[in-house]
Amino acid sequence: MDALVSTQWLASEIGAPDLRIVDATWLMEPGRDAAAEYEAEHIPGAVFMDLAGLADEKTELPMMLPSAEKFASRMQSLGLGDGSRIVLYDNSAQKTSARAWWMLHLFGAHAVAILDGGLAKWKADGHAVASGKEKLRHRHFTVWKDTGFIRTMDQMKELLDTKAEQIVDARGAARFEGREAEPRLGVNPGHMPGAKNLPMGELFDADGTYKSKDGLKAAFEAAGVDPTQPIAATCGSGITAATVAFAAHLLGNDKVAVYDGSWSEWGADPDTAKAIGAA
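User: That's the sequence. What structure does it adopt?
Assistant: Structure tokens below.
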């Protein structure tokens, strides 16, 4: 199974005993409820992964990774486990299936793909949707965590000196340059010194599908990033940074980690170095 699959491929595979389809929508828009929207319409057989609930409750930082044990327990309850082929999709402007892909990747799942274009493309291509809840089947998920895919604040501080990895910020240019206030209270504007800005929207075509490999390569290079070399991806809260990680993966680069605390942590700390303006 490829890391990025088409709606046609998924339609042909629905019903396979090892296939698990997952709605990984997480929303920032006021008035929208991801769980309610899932119940109203979803790809037949899909289960709902509550990304907001898959976070560390012991920190005030948003969307930090949960423990490996908590993650494995939640996956088991959704019927996602060892030997499953997992296809993720979303209906979110933040392309949150990439965050789910990154989490599954680092917590040990081996066959995980993203549906290109998500629910919108599925419907646009004329495929059926279902409503209500799906029957959940418990399945064993081995507890595992690969910290090589995560970066901490201390590691990011070290990268400012060593430059061993390219720091790539997926926020929009206005936030990156400090021209737009951060949405989270107490978080200063700007970016990490030396970071490159690759807004996540640059990775997608107008219909919400990922750009071709040539298009992705061009997007990285236009941002001053070598897509073949190690990358530490960051954003506001570790969500859209995962699209950078996934896009690099599509280009054959798995030397990419996500700074989980991202700007919510870095920008709120009065002692961290911050830069204003273009990279």
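The chain has a mean pLDDT of 96.
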